[in-house]
Amino acid sequence: MRTRLLAVVGAALVVSACSDTISQPVEVDDAVLVPMYSQGRGVGQDEVMPGEVIVGLRDMAEAEAVARGHGLAVGQRGLRGDWLVMRGAPLGTERGKAAEVARDSRVRYAEPNYLRQTTAIDGRLWAFYNPGGLNMNYTKGRNSGKPIGSSYASIADADEDNIEGYAAGGSDVVIGSIDTGVDMDHPEFAGRLLPGRDWYNRDDDPSDDEGHGSHTTGTMAGSSVGVAGVSGAGPHVKVYVQKVCGRRGCPTSAIVDAITAAANQPSMVAMNLSLGGSSESQAEKDAIAYAVNTKGVLVIASAGNGGNGTVSCPACDPNAISVA
Q: Which residues contact 124 (CB under 8 A, 6 or more apart)?
């Protein structure tokens, strides 16, 4: 089951990545400063949500008192109550403000509310201009330039294993889509979607207004075969849909709540995150550890699609399964 599930969820990740250089953690009293993943030349810092800092408090610490002490105000609180967003940092100072708050003895950690980005879909992909392998031509010999017969094309196509009946066996399970949402009315997903929450807009409508989440969900669970983007690998799965991305990107605060909610969903076995950034987040680490170690739910994330030889986060987390 674990191997089959990895194939279903991992199929949604359009990625390419290699190795990382990781700095060693630095201990300060009983706290550990989270190591950052070196992203190499030419890779910029993550963008952040303007004015926001994610803070994990120590037991008995009063959030309002901590926030006031640093000129901030208390915003949303995480689902498990182990972190909260503090707002009001002057624009452009979010990293410095997080470092300031992290030095407070009442605080376990503080970090900017990073903005992850979805893993881009390359429009040059084979399936987009050759769905089902039906538009193939000979490239050499006396037939060069002429169409290849459909019977041969179906064998030679790159999607040759994605045929009728593929993955028809297996048990009914629930997997999580943590992305831009999903087109809830698309016929490919009829009877397959479990609507969750839009954590970006903080409402209960996780409809996709960008397309990325519908594409990745189609790869996991679409009902058609040979159609670009919707030839699903797992016909028996239901998908618990959560939207974490908007026009700015995908805030860490939204991602962390979505991971927690997916982990708490009945019959959930794995969740897919085709998104990432360059900075490791302690809030994400805690949520992933909760999902994997407490709830027994796999967290599968995109290693990245930038071709820069690095692993994106949250895929960089040791408890996540990084797919490249």
A: none
| Phi (first) and psi of residue 304, to 5 degrees | 125, 160
CA dihedral 188, 194, 196, 200 (to 10 degrees): -10
Question: Taking the model in full, what pTM does it have?
Answer: 0.77
pLDDT for 107-122, tens place per residue?
999 999 999 999 865 5
pLDDT at residue 79 tops 80? yes
Q: What are residue 275's phi and psi, to 5 degrees?
A: -155, 165
pLDDT band at 324 (very low <50, low <70, confident <90, very high): confident
233-252 burial, b for 16+ CB within 10 Å, e for fewer?
bbbbbbbbbbbbbbeebbbb
Write the burial class of residue 124 (CB in 10 Å: 0-12 exposed, 13-18 middle, 19+ buried): exposed
User: Can you tell me whether residue 241 is helix, strand or coil?
Assistant: strand
Q: Evaluate whether 113 touches 252 at the Cβ level (below 8 Å).
A: yes
Report yes or no: 104 and 265 within 8 Å, Cβ to Cβ. no
Percent with pLDDT over 90 in the chain: 56
Q: Which residues pair with 239 in a beta bridge?
A: 175, 193
Neighbours of 170 (CB within 10 A): 14
Strands in the chain per DSSP E: 21-22, 26-28, 31-33, 37-38, 47-57, 73-77, 84-87, 107-118, 174-179, 193-198, 238-243, 250-251, 268-273, 275-276, 298-302, 321-323
B/e letters for 126-143, b = 16+ CB within 10 Å, e = fewer, are ebeebbbbeebeeeeeee
**Residues facing 195 on adjacent strands:** 241
Percent helix, percent strand, percent coil in the chain, to nearest 5: 25, 25, 50
Q: For residue 314, say if its preceding peptide bond is cis, omega within 30 degrees of 0.
A: yes
pLDDT above 70 coverage of the chain, percent: 70
